[in-house]
Amino acid sequence: MPDDSQPTAPTGSRDALSTGISGLDDVLAGGLTRDRLYLVEGRPGTGKTTLSLQFLLEGVARGEKGLYVTLSESADELRAGAASHGWSLDGVDVYELVSELGLDPDSEQSILHPSDVELGETVREVMERVDALQPARIVFDSLSELRLLAQNPLRYRRQILALKQFFASRGCTVLLLDDNTADVQLHSIAHGVIVVEQIEREFGSERRRIRVVKMRGVKVRGGFHDLVLRTGGLTVFPRLVAAEHSDEFDPGTTSTGLVELDLLLGGGLVPGTNTLLMGPSGAGKTTTAIRCMLTALEGGSRATYFLFDEGRATLLARSALLGMDLRPHIASGALDLMQIDPAEISPGEFTCRVREAVEAQGSSFVAIDSLNAYVHAMPGEQYLVLQMHELLSYLNQKGATTVLVLGQHGVIGEVRTDVDLSYLSDGIVLFRYFEAKGAVRTAISVVKSRVNAHERTIRELRISPTGLQVGEALSDFQGVLTGLPAYGGKVAMLDGNAETSGPAA
After folding, report:
1. Whose CA is closest to 318, among 484, 128, 505?
2. What is the pLDDT confidence band of residue 114, given thresholds at 50, 70 and 90?
3. Residue 36 CA to chain centroid, in angstroms?
4. What backbone phi and psi angles, to 5 degrees, belong to 324?
């Protein structure tokens, strides 16, 4: 883990060098310190080569010469890999230490037996190349081959120290790539150590993450940070720290669009808070979330709806049938309806998308529908609740109105949830089915609010072709706590045939 006790360099005293990956620069507090030697560790396939190419190409874009020294790949393989990302290595000098000459039986070098090559000769070749080119950025790929050439740890350490001193005297910033993640002695030599990992899952795409193990003189963002490797290179999603984000905003209560629901909530929704809509499938949670969001859009706000479960086309069609057409707001750019594939996204990437919606697009209303798919997609993420805590704290501090949808198992009787997020929520709206006069109806109530003195009554919720309706407060319920509520009061039910009501979610 990074040593957070290390003193941070005074402002302006560190000459930071961009890695070409904005998220990694954020983790590194601006980038790598210039003219230092860094170790990048990770198993094959984790993205080390891609990271190093982005580092060199960033230098080319800034007018700096780059050198890629390779013992593990040919220059053609390296250029082909770069081309798969749409990159050209023009401006980067690729130097193969073991070339076609290694195939010559009379040559002292052998591409099949690198241990037969004299280590000192190999190091001298690197030094000569650096002196001839005078690059500002160097990538050495990889140390595994150099370790084989050394044949013993003492000789290997001495050669690495010699290279470090040589590169420092030439004003080079160097990345050493290594497949061995257990070389502690090498950690002590390098100015900084970055570890890239790949985690396989039984279903869905593999996960990659990055961690800065060591960085001398810099207070980096500690912990693991999710990353993805796609066409176009690596993207790093820095771990969210909610305490770093805070804005001024008006905490005034806003209407949900339904007077009766506002009464239940003690006035409506409050910016800077999150509300959890919780209940069984089909009770009306999604429809209620859309009604609240549509009212915010009609008031001039921008909104983002993260859709995990339902298809985009289905949601739009169903909302239009209920008199809540979202398409004009999507066309105007006020609403971003974002379909999320939970099998292909990591917690860090999802958090980054939420931040972009709030900071780049200016969304003040955020809906997540639903948390169930998000949780199921990450069964191995044991700290998922902590990540959700950071995300919700961030949204609250940015003044966003957040609505979360959480489905519960079961329709009648005992209902339960996959994960308990009730303590993270500022408000909880509970949906339940109940029986009255031989018909199954839906009850809605507010069981928690940190910001308003809310009603503790139970009201009827009805979804009809004309939209969402909330009735008067009902009394004489029986069996609410047992999960089998039945109504025998005198307050009239909402008009309409409950058995043929409109589509619900």
Report:
1. 505
2. very low
3. 30
4. -125, 70
Fold for the domain defined by 16-239: Rossmann fold (3.40.50)
The one-letter code for the residue type at 252 is G
Q: Give the tens place of pLDDT for each residue, 459-474.
A: 999 998 888 999 988 8
pLDDT band (50, 70, 90) for residue 148? confident
Name the token pair of 484: 């089998």
CA distance to 68, 102, 228, per residue, from 79 (Å): 11, 21, 21
Whose structure tokens read 């005074």?
10
pLDDT for the residue numbered 412 = 60
Using the 8-state DSSP alphabet, how is residue 409 labeled?
B
Rg of the chain (C-alpha set): 29
Segment 387-406 mean pLDDT? 95
Tokens for 319, please give them: 């909302």
Stated pTM of the model: 0.85
Q: What is the CATH number of domain 244-500?
A: 3.40.50.300
Q: Do domains 16-239 and 244-500 have the same CATH topology?
A: yes
Where do the domains of the chain lie? 16-239, 244-500
Supply the DSSP symbol for 302.
Answer: -
